[in-house]
Amino acid sequence: MNTGIEQRCRKIFQFVEDDVEAIFLFNKDILDKNYLYLTGFYFGVFENCGILIDRDCNPVFLTTALEEEIIISQFKGYKVYSYRDEDGRIKSISRILKAYKKVGIPFDSTTHSGFLWLEQNFQGIEWVDISGAFKKARMIKFEYEVENIAEAGRIASKVADSIPNFLSNSITELELASEIEYRMKKMGAQGPAFTTIVAFGENSSKPHYTGGNSRILDNYIVLVDFGAIYRGYVSDITRTFLVNNPPREAVEVYRIVLRAQEMAIDMIKDGESSKRVEREVREYIDSFEKYRGRFIHSLGHSIGRDVHDDGYPGEEWSNQFAAGMVLTVEPGIYIPNMFGIRIEDDIMVGKDLSRVLTSANKELIIHALQ
Ligand code: GLY
Ligand code: MN
Question: Which of 33, 145, 152, 345 has its CB surrounded by the most CB atoms within 10 Å?
């Protein structure tokens, strides 16, 4: 039996305008992570499935035959409409929507064609954007969400700690990526949280390079950025390994990035300004003339059902961290055509201190190849 839909629904409605009578989520062209968040599902495809939930948090489920068993098994006793084709789908949705005039949908996860489909088939309804309500609700985690992310972090950390065993001259980036993904699944992960990034040598200067057939050979950098999915929740970790005989500059950059990351983790706590932490980290990196401007992305992002659930707290949070947010902390320095070094951990913001949810070793070690 699925529990918790009511508490998630109440949390979301806190941020929805009073005159919006219900929330409607439908996976028309894409699987909406808001649907997974609200229902709590973490396996299933749910194409052409949806949910309508009113302000009293009474849900009505809409499903194809493919997902009916999952939905019914987890929501026994709830109202479920099942259909086999577009005609049945439209009839079911029309029936449940006819009681409402103003319905909230997240514009951020509705495609243009999905919106036209709603307008054409269910006329007379005013559709109101509630993307912000989902973002706010998802940003502060329930305890069970933190525990799922922590387990995803534990899996990713164990795998990260095993990586030095695979570092041989002959391994390719893609081979290492597949070892990482295989090991995460062996440890109970549902899969990788995103395409695993493995970058050797100068490929590491591109933060989102995903991996090809390069071998380590004469390189001195191995950057890996990956995460596990556990019960629908993700982790996101980056480690950069120095191997063979790295130049002094790489060792120096590693120390700076590690120091910047530790500084940020120590500063982040409930009520602290997200802008101040970002600024201080950037100023610290920029204080090294050679590396000024080489920290080319933000300090981190929120994780949860999505890898980028949202950014660091912005205006809607008065630019402040709040207890219960789960964020990555990932400074990096990138020198084009040479190398990039990034170190990333996941933390849960606490009242006084943050809880670090990933634990892989990040001490500066020069690894010998196997
Ligand atoms: N882990 C990839 C990213 O945060 O963009
Ligand atoms: Mn990240």
Answer: 152
What spatial distance separates the first Cα and last Cα of the chain, rounded to whole Å?
Answer: 49
Do 106 and 22 belong to one domain?
A: yes
**Alpha carbon of 72 to those of 43, 79, 288: distances in Å?**
14, 9, 59
Positive or negative, the CA dihedral 286, 289, 291, 293 is positive
Instruction: Quote the domain boundaries for residue 241.
Output: 140-367
Q: What is the pLDDT of residue 1?
A: 46
Query: Which listed ligand is nearest to 195 at the C-alpha?
Result: 1
**Number of residues written out for the chain:** 370
Is the same domain home to 173 and 308?
Answer: yes
**3-state SS class at 201:** helix
Residues 222 and 287 in one domain: yes
Atom of ligand 1 nearest to the CA of 193: 1
pLDDT band at 2 (very low <50, low <70, confident <90, very high): low
Same domain, 251 and 144: yes
Q: Is the CB of residue 151 below 6 angstroms from any atom belonging to ligand 1?
A: no
Q: Which residues contact 319 (CB under 8 A, 6 or more apart)?
A: 273, 274, 275, 313
User: Is the pLDDT at 239 greater than 60, yes or no?
Assistant: yes
Q: Can you tell me which atom of ligand 1 is nearest the CA of 225?
A: 1
**Starting at the edge strand that comes first in sequence, how are the strands of the sheet with 102-105 ordered?**
79-83, 59-64, 50-54, 22-26, 102-105, 126-129
| Whole-number pLDDT of residue 217 | 84
Which residue, among 67, 58, 294, has the nearest Cα to 50 in the 3D structure?
A: 67
- Tell me 215's DSSP state: B
Instruction: Based on the fold, state whether residues 39 and 84 are members of the same structural domain.
Output: yes
Neighbours of 233 (CB within 10 A): 28
pTM here is 0.96
Ligand 2: centre distance to CA 330 (Å): 7
If you take atom 5 of ligand 1, which residue's CA is the nearest one?
208
CA distance 259 to 336: 22
The CATH number given to whatever domain includes residue 178 is 3.90.230.10
DSSP state of 109: G
Q: Are residues 246 and 302 in the same domain?
A: yes
CATH number for the domain that contains residue 112: 3.40.350.10
Number of domains making up the chain: 2
Strand 191-192 and strand 228-230: the pairing is antiparallel
Last residue in a domain, options 113, 138, 163: 138
